[in-house]
Amino acid sequence: MRVLVTGATGFVGGRLVPALIDAGHEVVALVRDAERYDPPDGVAVVEADLLDPQSLEGCFADVDAAYYLVHSMQTGGDFAARDRAAARNFVDAARESPLERVVYLAGLGETGDDLSAHLKSRREVESILAGGEFDLTVLRAAVIVGDGSASFRLMRELVSKLPVMITPRWVRNDCQPIAVADVVAYLVGVLDAPETAGGTYEIGGPEVLSYAEMLRRTARTAGRPLVLVPVPVLTPTLSAHWLRLVTDVPASVARPLVEGLKNPVVADDERIRELVPVELTPFDAAVKRALAGGD
């Protein structure tokens, strides 16, 4: 199958491209600056920008499937408006093309009006893509553990810099983190599972943990001491300001991430495990790999 990957230079996309090649697919990587991208052997490269509709002409002319792995949170400002425009341009450019399937990696979280701005934007992109003339497969994930993950970067920096940590109430909320290698396995696997076309699935690792336990176990794996002191008054907004002071993660990234922690994010729907069997990576093993700079 000939597959287009948007976000090919990103945290997930950079791992997905070689995995698709290993699975026997032809891969086309869509990047904004081809000169700065060193593709794996056998990967075709097309230079385009999802925010520039004219640059997308012909990108879908000879592809059977595409992965949508683009989001603008790390660019700050009104990332939701940019994500909305990019998704609409993608759908418009794909019209009347042979594109049959699109796979979108979205955020896991409860539906409703209480979603964070980050998750609301992910849901909006999901809705826009669903209006395209192709079968959309959505995989929703919570915290992805791996070197390069913004969420994991926050945890790693916190445990490396703060042996005693004042924590808000949301650290007691449940989360189902998943190793990036397992995310990639699911992304590749759905292409060979035609019954997943048009479906939305929740993906998670083998353990449901509180954020506090994730911090403790990350510290233990890193060989760092950690004492958590819970306080009732640290809101997500105050937490984001605090993170800006004690970590190198930009406020434009930290705030949307922290606001998303106020809701439990657990993969209650396990249908994907039967359709795409993946041997899930334990949390401690995923952390160890990430701290070592691997998957």
Annotate the secondary structure layout.
Blueprint: E1 2-6, H1 13-22, E2 26-31, E3 44-47, E4 65-68, H2 79-94, E5 101-107, H3 117-130, E6 135-141, E7 144-145, H4 150-161, E8 164-167, E9 174-175, E10 178-179, H5 180-191, E11 200-203, E12 209-210, H6 211-222, E13 227-230, H7 236-246, H8 251-259, H9 271-275, H10 283-291
Parallel strand pairs: 1-2, 1-4, 2-3, 4-5, 5-6, 6-11, 7-10, 8-13
Antiparallel strand pairs: 9-12
Helix pairs in contact: 1-5, 2-3, 4-6, 6-10, 7-8
Your description of this structure?
This protein has 295 residues and is of the alpha/beta class. It contains 10 helices and 13 strands. α2 links the parallel β4 (65-68) and β5 (101-107). α4 (150-161) crosses α6 and α7 (236-246) runs antiparallel to α8 (251-259). The longest helix has 16 residues, at 79-94. The chain is globular, with a radius of gyration of 19 Å.
